[in-house]
UniProtKB/TrEMBL annotation, chain A:
The keyword Metal-binding is annotated on this UniProt entry: yes
Protein name, UniProt field: Fe-S oxidoreductase
Spans traversing the lipid bilayer: 6-25, 70-92, 98-116, 137-154
Pfam families membership: CCG, DUF3483, Fer4_9
Cited SUPFAM superfamilies: alpha-helical ferredoxin
This protein's UniProt keywords: 4Fe-4S, Iron, Iron-sulfur, Membrane, Metal-binding, Oxidoreductase, Transmembrane, Transmembrane helix
Listed GO MF terms: 4 iron, 4 sulfur cluster binding; metal ion binding; oxidoreductase activity
Recorded GO CC terms: plasma membrane
Source organism per UniProt: Pseudogulbenkiania subflava DSM 22618
Domain of life of the organism encoding this protein: Bacteria
Residues covered by the 4Fe-4S ferredoxin-type domain: 237-266, 308-339
TrEMBL record, chain B:
InterPro entries: ETF_a/b_N (IPR014730), Rossmann-like_a/b/a_fold (IPR014729)
Designated name of the protein: Electron transfer flavoprotein beta subunit
Pfam families membership: ETF
The species this protein was found in: Pseudogulbenkiania subflava DSM 22618
Domain Electron transfer flavoprotein alpha/beta-subunit N-terminal: 16-197
Keyword Transport part of the UniProt annotation: yes
Key words of the record: Electron transport, Transport
Superkingdom of the organism of origin: Bacteria
Length: 633, 257
């Protein structure tokens, strides 16, 4: 009897392995519709490290599901590995059966936890086939435990053994089918196989290399007429693979500011739309939240048909603020922002159909090198009485101050003036470029106009090449990000710091003469700019500045790397897609919830967005203004 | 409704950007191009033509806005281009150009000279162009929201107002795919321009009243003392108060019901 069960298990194992392999071949054919990508097969050996370090680091933010997943996945992998050894290779060793029993019980415990989470699931989770998953896991773990028990027990169960053996086989077969067939049929368990392969062949390999954050957009080869992604088959094959890794946990949906504002973008649905396009069909199996305002719309996808207009409304694409909150939250390390920008690039470069004021802003950038269509000579008008030298070719300065587009905004000019005063009080040798400073091209790039970005970047690098300076300081995180992370690949390498970093260092060195402040300081909270916090991981320097001037910050619930966007990013304030609420209003509610009387910002665009919130609200102050107020003049 | 086989010529010229001084597209020429694309239906029946001394890059904006090929007639900067252009587009049934160009020789007089050369009627300042059989009907732009319908038999020269139709959005791919085709330079006689110093015409504004802004404001708004022209209504229910407002608006013909 025991031996019959053993043979049956061997048969079942190899049947499952064969089905899984066939399914993988079938799914891989879908991925291979994509463009070639330069990733080596040898990357497969990086999977364990990337899984246990990079991926688990994200999953561990939710300790409950992390424990459940460790138990389920760990147990399942152990059961499968032991089954492969003991039954696949027909060793039939009782010791391995004992281990398999332990592994199956571990998996059972995990499956119970998963089931408990599914009892009252948060709104962000997808239902449908995903609700079936805990049952499949339970069946498999019970089947595995029973099979191991029967193998160990010999004849102890007597006549009941046959019935129990059938039950065990049924459990293993039904539960195992979820995994064996999942990848081929696109079921929930495809995430296990696709997810592991995605870790190895991730489109951003530099994400896993040490402390550098890989947040820069990659340049397009415009000369080769690469105009971004039109059809699913225009994605690189490993991007298509990455879409299949999605577990529809909806962490991205919960973090997305556009989704919360009721704009027609749900990042989870966006990724599933890409899966629908890749696999052709209308995505009827999707049982999660739709793009806001688009419930019940059935859209047909095809790997060789345009995505925008078919699968996706253009408004979905233009709602994204590129704030990377989704990418930060994604446990499967999917790159939503890359996907959005690739699609935007095609729309902008081939048809130019950028909504709202985006088209005007891009025309201004092409014609005047400024977003607002201002004369370049006006960029440093605010500094006219501050005696800031304009750097001339041949001269040298320690610090080059680059004001960016915020220099044309009268509100932000106050912050710039404060910054100059502080830097001068600290005795830094600062100069500006004056009327030769063009725009860095950030907005053009986020709106998908890679041609204008590359043209502006070239102009900026040419200009900077003509001047001699040690370091650049800028209060604009967008300019900071471009110079620091996106210019190097184009050939521009600069030592650039955000003004919060410079101010923090100066304060810590005691280089800024501060007056003793007797007046009690109003309660202050700090809004992290996405392009400083999430894009550059710099959440510490602004807080060091507050410490340096004796301000205790009341933190918002969503701050630091989890900070919520102000609504400007990615040109969203230009495309201005209507929603039910405005993103800056929601952020101001976050600020009000702390009870703070003022909110400190460290970005010209956050300043503009939060200053634009109407009605009674906390005061918006710039970091440099807070420091300047404490200057002993 | 466009006649299927209409041959259309669009005249374009680079403008000078008012802020940066760089060459850019002119909105009226862009509108003419957008209309031309619509009316010609296909690029074979559409000729986009420029005569002057600008560099190819200055015309790139029109390529990005949908012209698949811009034909350039290289001339000296001060050449009289009307006869040259007329020779190039003699077979066009419909000639479109901006009401005025942003620079170069495409001055306000060019369409009239061109119409004279082609012996065709000129329909100026079109906001919309419709082809009806063998004739063209346009809606003409006039100041203060006034409009007028004009019609003429083909062939015809139409100057297009910049608000006629939005230009096609700027597309980098179209710019790269489009071509600038240079014809052989033609010797042309210089335009007969007579230059003379412009007299400065100072027209001082005379204020209707010498009172300060604050005083005039006080005179216009209502106060309780009854000395001013305004009226403060404090009596009566909201309906009566609203009636006063409505009467005021009707008196001043601000509402018509």
């Amino acid at each position: 009897m025991t031996f019959t069960l053993a043979y049956a298990l061997t048969g079942l194992f190899w049947l499952g392995a064969a089905l899984l392999s066939l399914g993988l071949v079938r799914r891989a054919a879908l991925w291979r519709q994509g463009r070639a990508a330069p990733v080596a097969l040898g990357r497969l050996i990086t999977i364990p490290k990337r899984y246990f370090v990079d991926l688990h680091h994200v999953v561990a933010r939710d300790p409950f599901i992390a424990k459940a997943h460790v138990a389920v996945a760990g147990g399942a992998v152990a059961v499968l590995a032991l089954a492969a050894l003991n039954y696949g290779l027909m060793l039939y060793l009782p010791a391995l059966d004992a281990l398999m029993l332990l592994a199956a019980l571990l998996m059972l415990a995990g499956a119970m936890l998963v089931r408990a989470r599914r009892k009252a699931p948060p709104a962000r989770l997808s239902k449908g086939a995903w609700n079936r998953l805990p049952k499949s896991l339970l069946l498999f773990s019970i089947g595995g435990a029973l099979a191991a028990l029967l193998a160990l027990s010999g004849d102890a169960f007597g006549t009941a053994a046959q019935g129990l053996a059938l039950l065990a086989l049924a459990g293993l077969a039904l539960g195992g089918a979820e995994l064996a067939l999942g990848i081929g049929l696109g079921g929930p368990m495809k995430h296990a196989v696709a997810g592991l392969l995605h870790l190895a062949f991730h489109p951003r390999q530099d994400r896993f290399s040490g402390d550098k954050r890989s947040t820069d957009l990659k340049p397009l080869d415009l000369a080769a007429k690469d105009y971004g992604v039109e059809k699913p088959s225009d994605f690189a094959w490993n991007r298509l693979l990455s879409f299949d890794a999605c577990v529809q946990c909806g962490k991205c949906e919960a973090a997305c500011p556009a989704y919360a504002a009721g704009q027609p973008l749900n990042p989870k649905k966006l990724i599933q739309d890409m899966v629908t396009g890749m696999a052709a069909g209308s995505g009827p199996a999707y049982a999660g939240n739709p793009h806001p305002g688009q419930a019940g719309k059935v859209r047909q996808g095809d790997p060789h048909q345009p995505i925008v207009g078919g699968l996706l409304d253009p408004e979905t694409l233009w709602s994204c603020t590129t704030c990377r909150a989704c990418v930060e939250e994604c446990p499967m390390l999917i790159e939503h922002v890359d996907t959005v920008v690739s699609l935007r690039r095609h729309v902008t470069l081939t048809r130019g159909e950028v909504p709202g004021k985006g088209r005007e802003a891009l025309a201004n950038l092409r014609d005047t090198d400024t977003v607002g269509g201002y004369p370049l000579a006006a960029r440093y008008h605010w500094a006219i009485d501050l005696n800031v030298p304009v750097l001339l070719p041949g001269e040298h300065t320690d610090w080059l101050l680059m004001a960016g587009e915020g220099a044309f905004d009268m509100r932000y000019q106050r912050a710039l003036r404060a910054l100059v005063k502080v830097l001068k009080a600290a005795g830094l040798k600062v100069a500006v470029l004056g009327e030769v400073e063009p725009d860095c091209g950030d907005l053009a790039r986020r709106l998908g106009d890679e041609a204008t970005f590359q043209q502006l970047a070239g102009k900026m690098m040419d200009t900077l090449g003509r001047y001699r300076f040690n370091r650049i300081v800028t209060p604009d995180p967008h300019l900071f990000h471009c110079l620091k992370n996106e210019y190097p690949v184009l050939g521009g390498r600069y030592d650039v710091e955000h003004h919060s970093q410079v101010l923090a260092d100066l304060l810590e060195r005691g280089a800024v003469p501060l007056k003793a402040d007797a007046a009690p300081l109003p309660a202050t909270t700090y809004h992290d700019p996405c392009y400083l916090g999430r894009y550059n991981g710099e959440t510490d320097a602004p807080r060091r500045v507050f410490k340096g001037i004796g301000i205790k910050v009341v933190e918002m619930e969503r701050s630091g790397r989890k900070g919520r966007c102000c609504g400007w990013g990615g040109g969203a304030s230009f495309t201005d897609i209507p929603g039910e609420r405005r993103i800056p209003d929601m952020r101001m509610d976050d600020i009000r919830a702390t009870g703070a009387e003022q909110v400190a910002v460290a970005c010209p665009n956050c300043t503009a967005m939060l200053e634009g919130v109407v009605g009674p609200r906390p005061e918006v102050v710039e970091l440099a203004e807070l420091v300047a107020a404490r200057l002993a003049v | 409704m466009s006649t299927p086989m209409l041959k259309v010529a669009v005249l374009v010229a680079p403008a000078i950007h008012p802020v940066s001084g760089r060459p850019c597209t002119h909105p009226a020429d862009s509108a003419a191009l957008a209309l031309g694309l619509k009316l010609a239906g296909s690029s074979e029946r559409l000729t986009v033509l420029y005569a002057g001394a600008a560099a190819d890059e200055a015309l790139a904006g029109y390529l990005a806005q949908g012209a698949s090929c811009v034909t350039v007639l290289p001339t000296a900067e001060d050449a009289d281009i009307a006869p040259l252009l007329a020779a190039q587009i003699a077979d066009a049934e419909l000639v479109l150009c901006g009401t005025r160009a942003g620079g170069g020789q495409g001055s306000a007089l060019l369409p009239y000279q061109l119409a004279e050369e082609l012996e065709a009627p000129l329909l100026p300042d079109a906001l919309s162009v419709a082809i009806k059989g063998g004739s063209v009907e346009i809606e003409q732009f006039l100041p203060k929201g006034q409009r007028r319908s004009l019609a003429a038999a083909l062939p015809v020269v139409v100057t297009v107002h910049e608000r006629a139709t939005p230009a096609l959005p700027y597309s980098h791919a179209r710019k790269e795919a489009g071509k600038v085709r240079r014809l052989m330079p033609v010797a042309a006689k210089a335009a007969e321009w007579r230059y003379e110093p412009g007299g400065r015409r100072a027209r001082p504004l005379v204020a209707a009243s010498r009172a300060s802004g604050h005083e005039r404001m006080l005179g216009a708004i209502a106060a309780d003392d009854g000395k001013t022209t305004g009226l403060v209504v404090k009596q009566g229910d909201p309906v009566e108060k609203a009636q006063v407002l409505l009467d005021y608006l009707r008196d001043h013909q601000l509402v018509d019901f």
